[in-house]
Structure prediction request, 387 residues.
Amino acid sequence: MTTSEQIFDTLVLPYLNHAVRMYEADYASVSDIDAGMRFGCGYAQGPLAVIDELGAASVRDRLAVRYAETGDRLHQPAELLEKLAAESGTFAALGADAGTAAPELKRDIAKVGVVGTGTMASGIAQVFAQSGYGVIYVGRSQEKLDGVVGYITKNLDRAIDKGKSTEDDKAAVLGRLTGATTRDALAEVDLVVEAIAEDLDVKLELFRDLDGICKQGAILATTTSSLPITQLGAATDRPADVIGMHFFNPAPVMKLVEVVTTPATAADVDETVKALCAKVGKVAVSCGDRAGFIVNCLLFPYLNDAVLLHESGVELVAIDAAIKETAGFPMGPFELLDVVGNDVSLAIQKELHGEFKEDGLAPAKTLEEKVAAGHLGRKTKQGFHSY
Ligand code: 3HC
Prediction:
């Protein structure tokens, strides 16, 4: 019998350690790491705040037990954790003086373009339209465009049912949406956010095309979660205007946007995008162009570990329940895998394994099998759970 506490130690402690290593490597600030997990995944606290609460020494000791069992370097307490444990230090103190001024809109953003018609594209179109922006969304067929309106209508109807919106608001939001089946419709937008297939060649072709279509000064953003944005920028004659805006699923609800700059991204583009995020009710964190950014880099190894734990004989429902109870996460790992999609999760895990070359990041066999069997999650009505 595996207790809830053992499940917590197996899944959550390595996640905390990984967050420490991310900070140690100078990839992101204390506040951006914590904000990432709070606003991207709906956690009450970020990992570094959790370590402060549990005490660095306690986390270090429990991780050391796990490391002795597994010998996996990912479980070896991070050096900084050892240091904080020895000195009774906290991440709150390390992150204390990192205040920055509120970003400003350095470029005018009046009209937004969205490319794609899937869940993320639909959610992103909804976010901008709800904040008063005219949105031109581009899909490959009228049927796909209708799907975007269907997604947004369903969300707005749910809000109306709950008394949080009105038919007038709904009409206004839908009235700001203009669908198009050709990209030429994006000629006059100030910002394009693309959320098409996670395939480098497909996105490269899109960026070359956008470079020819969009007016000078337009910001070209991608919501890729794993592809190199630097390469997308290099496919255009305006890499300074190319940036990542990584939204989270479901986009209308999750408040986080990871704003990913490449070495070529202009500072005014970065600042404008951050200011725009605030305007549409989102929280922006800064990331470099590296696989997984902040959130996926911390989240997916934990989800993969949950699959490995299940493979060792622990029931799915027991793991989901234990995590919600002990860590207070809004969803158990298998519930979340089914929302994200096992295909997407596998692709992200492969990227992380390729980038960080840690054996402990190799995708779990069951995750591969689920994808091969077409059990992708909620979207196929069968994933780890059935729907
Ligand atoms: N679209 C729009 N709105 C939705 C929605 C959806 N798909 N699902 C839920 N909502 C809204 C509800 O209408 C409700 O709105 P209200 O508060 O205004 O009434 C609100 O969200 C809360 O929904 P519920 O009360 O029905 O359900 P929960 O309290 O269980 O919340 C949840 C649902 C917000 C999805 C919550 O479970 C959660 O935060 N889950 C974590 C999701 C997560 O971790 N996402 C990140 C995945 S990783 C990723 O996206 C990266 C990518 O690269 C793969």
